[in-house]
Structure formats: structure tokens, C-alpha cells
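Translate structure to sequence.
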């Protein structure tokens, strides 16, 4: 399992900024009891993720910074599996990212845990599109 002192970023991706913030706050409330260091990482006011990038995503991301212990990862996976249309982006301290949907979370209940447990030394750490 990852070092509990490292900071991981989980971003809720949505084209509706209010819904992204609501979902991020809901996830933060679930995580707050097991990871008191978890906090919201809100985008700049009026700034969209990828805004201005030709062909880039036009969705806003609302992030959560957390320590990602195994119980925290299980809560994230469970939350995501309940919302099949939701997409999140998980980012490790080494910069590798994983894009995962609620549908993928239902199909593979250890996907996020395996990604966060990876030490980044092999091809499995390459960014994954979901």
C-alpha cells in the first residue's frame, strides 16, 4: 500500500461545475472520517480544466487531496461504483494518472488500489485512459 504520508489527488470530472463540486463534497464527507487530512482542491474561479486547449476537455475538475490509505481507497472505489456515469482522475505523487469511470469501478473493485500501490517503476504506471 502507498506511503500514508504522500499526497494523492482524486479529481471529480464533470461538465457541470456545480455537480462536480457537490460530488466532491459528498466524497469528502465520506472520506473525512477515515482521513482527517483529506481536503477539497477547488479550481481557480472561472477556470475550466483544459479550457483554451484546442480539442482538450471542457469539463471542470474538483479535486480531493488525501493520503490514500487502503480504507480510503476502498471508500473511493465504493463511492465511484455507485455513480456509473461519473469519471474521476486519480493522480499519484510521481505524476502518473488513472482515469476511471463508475462503470469501470464496478467491473474491477481493486483498480484504484492497484494503481496507487504501483511504485511507478514499470509500464503499469503509464497513464491510463478510461
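Result:
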Amino acid at each position: 500500500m502507498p506511503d500514508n504520508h504522500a499526497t494523492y489527488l482524486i479529481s471529480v470530472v464533470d461538465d457541470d461545475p456545480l455537480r462536480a463540486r457537490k460530488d466532491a463534497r459528498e466524497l469528502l464527507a465520506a472520506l473525512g472520517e477515515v482521513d482527517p487530512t483529506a481536503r477539497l482542491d477547488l479550481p481557480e474561479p472561472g477556470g475550466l480544466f483544459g479550457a483554451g486547449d484546442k480539442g482538450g476537455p471542457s469539463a471542470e475538475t474538483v479535486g480531493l487531496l488525501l493520503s490514500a490509505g487502503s480504507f480510503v481507497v476502498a471508500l473511493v472505489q465504493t463511492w465511484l461504483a455507485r455513480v456509473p456515469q461519473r469519471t474521476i482522475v486519480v493522480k499519484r505523487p510521481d505524476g502518473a494518472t488513472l482515469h476511471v469511470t463508475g462503470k469501470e469501478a464496478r467491473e474491477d473493485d481493486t483498480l484504484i488500489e492497484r494503481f496507487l500501490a504501483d511504485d511507478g517503476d514499470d509500464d503499469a504506471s503509464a497513464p491510463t485512459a478510461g
